[in-house]
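does this look right to u?? trans-cyclohexane-1,4-dicarboxylic acid version
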Amino acid sequence: MIKKLYNVAVVGATGAVGQEMVKTLEQRNFPVNNLIPLASARSAGAEVEFAGDKWTVEELTPTSFANVDIALFSAGAARSKDYAPAAVESGAVVVDNSSAFRMDPEVPLVVPEVNAHAIALHKGIIANPNCSTIQMVVALKPLHDAARIKRIVVSTYQSVSGAGSQAIHELGDQTRALLNFQDYAPKKFPWQIAFNCIPHIDSFTESGYTKEELKMIHETRKIMEDDSIQVSPTTVRVPVFYGHGEAVNVEFEEPMSPEAARELLRAAPGVEVVDDPASNQYPMAITAAGKDAVYVGRIRKDESVEHGLNLWIVSDNIRKGAALNAVQIAEKLIEE
Ligand code: 25A
Ligand code: L14
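got this back:
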């Protein structure tokens, strides 16, 4: 059997997510013919290791996509808006990790465990959802199918890697500076992030909610294909490098016991249940960092409503929250 190989561009290949995309393509043996790592002029000439070879980073331009079959974008929404149309024009299919096209009705917004069928509807661009939304819907979809979710109240504990590679350095450097009684002014974050929690991710809107919070409302409805689901989010940055935590309260139409939820989640694709409080077993950022699964624990009844549960959901925001989900979409795409 002749296996087809694909020319794959990674836009933002030197960033936190782009580097993980290259690693994930290699780990999952994605059938790559040529890898085309793209970034800003700042990184042109740098080398990326992939499949035992070194690949030179090129500057992203509108002509970067000649002969590209699949383009994974992870260089921010501005670059996606400017260059994804050029990539599609050249014949590539774009999997875009930014917020640029997620709510465009023409663009499927996909988490393969939840709505893989939507991939077939694409017109050149498929959007990868926001990291906090991805891990929440992977865990909640099987519960929604069984008992219909009415309302979700979610508070996030988001790691700094979601804000990119400079933000990762900021937490490390600022922590070191403060421990040495030196100053370190915030750069990527609005306030000191070392030894602090900041209830502010992405920018504020007039509603009082941040854009990150609004993404959790609208993207959840689009991916679950149910506009009746109510979502009430608060998103918070915590001084953790990798892995987002979410305290999630769910109200259902139908009964859903903790035991039934555990059973459904144990059988759910992409989910690992870690839920044995008697022996201090619950998922943490350090459980999820570097792993593929969405981890769920602390599953317990919410006694304050008729059919309610509380859960704690953790996943690596750079892997399942970004790079892995994008590569999984590309895998489904080439299956067709
Ligand atoms: O939408 P915005 O506001 O533009 O925000 C984009 C941000 O979103 C991050 C991304 O992180 C960036 O900070 N991001 C991406 N996916 C995300 C996700 N799923 C996500 N955040 C959350 N969830 P990043 O900094 O890790 O990666 C940025 C990548 O994009 C490339 N890039 C930037 N501008 C570009 C561009 N590529 C083409 N054309 C442009 N105009 C970027 O390449 C990187 O690959 P680079 O060459 O700019 O960066 C190489 C190294 O340089 C450091 N760096 C970044 N900015 C500066 C810088 N060094 C000095 N000065 C700077 N201003 C980075 O640390 C990187 O390692
Ligand atoms: O919309 O700063 O994919 O943690 C996800 C993470 C935007 C920023 C997105 C962060 C982003 C965000």
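The chain has nine helices and 14 strands. idk if thats expected tbh
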